[in-house]
Design a protein that fits this description.
Length: 430
């Protein structure tokens, strides 16, 4: 008796069939179009890195989620946790030849040993943009503009770019006399505010600060009101950075209702130092769909030079989930726009010529691979949502014609073979 291996995959990973890949490719191309519009160029880094490159760069919580193993050469290896630290390594190794400031985008898989949940996977795609080699807040404002344009281009009518400043958070913690060694831990707890209840957040914070300090902190960062109303409550702190960022963002044309100052926003990774971002889709309960911020010292981990940078990662898989829930991907079809039927050996040369003519007209087309009843071929076209089936049987061949069936309506049209290119040119933008 044959013993078959069960065709299973690891929890938190997924296969994607053509219907899903068509949607994913569509979204990727939309995102890339915005990136390149703003002058970002692509790079690529390995999926695996030396452990010393990866570990210790994300804080205690992040390091627990890194996939780490020994290879056959007994080298300590990690899978890529994000694309920012590898990017810093690339800059440190190549800064003498790179144009500075350097702008890049990178789209690729990352891996986290996290507990799988809705919109949270162990293997997923990130779409990153970064600007490195400048401290100018124009960089933060441009990043915010790119985020706004990506979500607008993808069809989201409602989204919020929440922002805060790590410098402001640090000032608040210092003002509350929180010991320096406890501040990073408190920031990581604040970063869980969209995952834990207020009571749970308060309880965790109490492990690092007194009851009164925790109450004062939460009272400050959880204020209600508009961005300006919230910002006015922090006048005792240095908020020049935030005010200047908002002024430049306005020059970029980012609507006021899109940019939301949220003093509770923390971002858990240790390398952030300035303005930080998270993007939310109010209509979809899936968490942040894009996040990042300013980092001042990441490259100095790999070289003596200090390059300040700012960047964000678009959570590609969460964006897909959100778009599917909002029915923004319902009209995305597979590649083929026309199927040429195959009846017999005598008509095959004509069918191949017709296939070439349709492709010349600009449509993506394919031919059925073997002679079969037309009902079977139409069923194939229907399964792939192919709009047109083009038939040239013995009768059409004798008359020098083709019959075109519109699958959506079921209507048919017969035209001379020599008019195929002109006929289908009108559909080449489908």
């Amino acid at each position: 008796m044959n013993q078959f291996i069960e065709p299973k995959i690891l929890q938190g990973t997924r296969d994607f069939l053509p219907e899903q890949m068509a949607k994913r490719d569509y979204v990727l191309e939309k995102i890339k179009t915005v990136f390149t519009k703003f002058g970002y160029d692509a790079i690529e880094t390995p999926a695996i890195e030396y452990a010393e490159t990866i570990l210790g760069k994300y804080g205690e919580e992040g390091s627990k989620l890194v996939y780490r193993f020994k290879d056959n050469g007994d080298r300590d290896i990690c899978l890529r946790y994000d694309q920012t630290v590898p990017f810093a390594r690339v800059v440190a190794a190549n800064y003498k030849t790179l144009p500075m400031p350097f702008k890049r985008y990178q789209i690729g898989r990352v891996w986290r040993a996290d507990r799988p949940a809705k919109g949270r996977y162990r293997e997923f795609y990130q779409c990153d943009i970064d600007i490195i080699g400048t401290q100018s807040l124009v960089a933060e404002a441009e990043i915010a503009k790119v985020m706004a344009e990506v979500f607008t281009t993808l069809g989201f009518s409602k989204f919020k770019i929440k922002f805060n400043s790590r410098r402001l958070i640090n000032s608040i913690l210092n003002d509350l006399k929180i010991p320096a060694e406890n501040q990073a831990g408190m920031i990581r707890i604040l970063d869980k505010m969209d995952k834990l209840s207020p009571a749970e957040i308060k309880q965790e914070l109490k492990s690092l600060a007194s009851d009164s300090e925790v109450s004062k902190l939460l009272e400050l960062v959880c204020v209600e009101g508009s961005s300006n109303e919230r910002l006015n409550l922090f006048q005792k702190y240095n908020i020049t950075e935030i005010q200047e960022f908002l002024k430049i963002a306005k020059g970029f044309g980012i609507p006021d209702e899109v940019l939301v100052f949220d003093p509770s926003l923390a971002r858990g990774l240790d390398y952030y130092t300035g303005v930080i971002f998270e993007v939310y889709i109010p209509e979809v309960d899936i968490g942040a769909v894009c996040a990042g911020g300013r980092y001042d010292d990441l490259c100095s981990l790999f070289c003596p030079e200090k390059f300040s940078g700012v960047g964000v990662a678009f959570g590609f898989d969460r964006i897909i989930v959100a778009m599917e829930q909002l029915k923004l991907l319902d009209e995305i079809s597979l590649n083929s726009q026309a199927l040429v039927a195959y009846f017999d050996a005598d008509t095959l040369p004509d069918s191949l010529k017709i296939l070439g003519d349709i492709q010349t007209a600009g449509l993506k087309a394919e031919i059925y691979f073997e002679p079969a009843k037309i009902a079977k071929q139409l069923k194939y076209a229907d399964k792939k949502s192919i709009p047109f089936v083009v038939m040239c049987g013995s009768d059409e061949k004798e008359r020098g014609e083709v019959t075109i069936k519109m699958m959506k309506t079921g209507k048919q049209k017969t035209i001379p073979q020599d008019q195929i290119i002109n006929y289908f040119k009108g559909y080449s933008s489908l």
